[in-house]
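Deliverable D5.2: sample structural annotation.
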Amino acid sequence: MVEVVTAAGYGRRTGGSGQLMANQTRVTPAMASRIEIWPVDRLVPYARNARTHSAEQVAQIAASIVEFGFNAPILVDSHAGIIAGHGRMLAARKLGLAEVPVVVLDHLSDTQRRAYILADNKLAENAGWDEKVLAAELADLERDGLDLRVVGFSDHELEVLLADSADGPPPEDEEQIPEAPAEPVTRPGDVWLVGKHRLICGDCRDRNVVARLFEGAKANLVVTSPPYATQREYDPASGFTPIPPEKYTGWYRAVAEAIASVLAPDGSYFLNIKPHADGGERSLYVMDLVLAHRRRWGWRFVDEFCWRKTDNGVPGGWPNRLKNAWEPVYHFCRQQKIKFHPDAVGHVSEDCFDYAQSNAKSRSGSGLLGCGVRGPAAGKHPNADANGHFKGIARPSNVIECKAEGGQGSHFRPVPSYARRVLRAGVHRRG
């Protein structure tokens, strides 16, 4: 028997009889030696690609790229024709990426290339799931704060899988946190490396501390939730003394300056804080703080997000106001043009429509006013229905509905994981 090792890496018999034994097979597959970065516009989709990608799936791929990075290069032939990765190419265009990673497969014959376009999709479909392991992994990821929609499962699939995981073994007892040692392990100025993240022990109002943490890097997005003004008592051992409302703006200025020192020119900064109520009225120090950013410190006030953090408001009752159910998140930047990609967190809608360019425009620069013709009459989207509506990606609103992390009686300050993802994808993407 004579064995031939093909370019594709499969041994085949050219003579003799009987089965080709595993210990007689020598496989030397072709392997890519490098990843290249190409302009998106250079890529040529395969005209006979049988794999389809809905707008919803492209949005899922785009959200995955935003969350995890562009980890799977697009496979192309020597003529820039796409072999595998049509969905990733569409997601890259949706995100406005100028370049993408590619791997050139120049060892395939034309027949092999066409066959591999099918095999790359079908072979992945032939795999299965261990649903018990899958449900447990999804439940763990949800407990870690991940928005499970970025992994590609539908809401119904997640509901069924997570319901199954609820029947599993009871969760382990909550970890007991030991008493703080008399001699602290971490001291001011220490920098901890947590995976790809850096954490410094120090005062965020100190620009030198912040500069040491960043080591010359720039932040595309900053999210901060500072302490309230004399609303809560803090551990005296922390060295922090609550700031009176009338002195809060002056105290916070150093925080804003530290952020400005490391924020990228086209970056964004989000401030989450809500004033407390005293004597039957809200304190005005947060309004003073927002105005100081704009009128005194050189920041641009882009927008205000509404973070709806509870279903029905905080339990309790007050003589002259309703229950708390939301907090504001203020969006600031340093220049008019910023990183802004709202479609990355959009959703598929059957109710999209466009206005004709002849419509009146808002003086605020927010776009066309809601009047006049739409749909086909506007010269766009010929597939729209009689009312001008069509299926597309709808831009999300500035209302973020997400429960706070932590139960009643505890108060966790980080913006919840989904809110973090919305803010990050909406104004910033890696790459």
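Annotation notes: Residues 1-23, 406-414 have pLDDT under 50 and may be disordered. The two ends are 52 Å apart (CA to CA).
The annotation will be released with the project's public dataset once the embargo ends.
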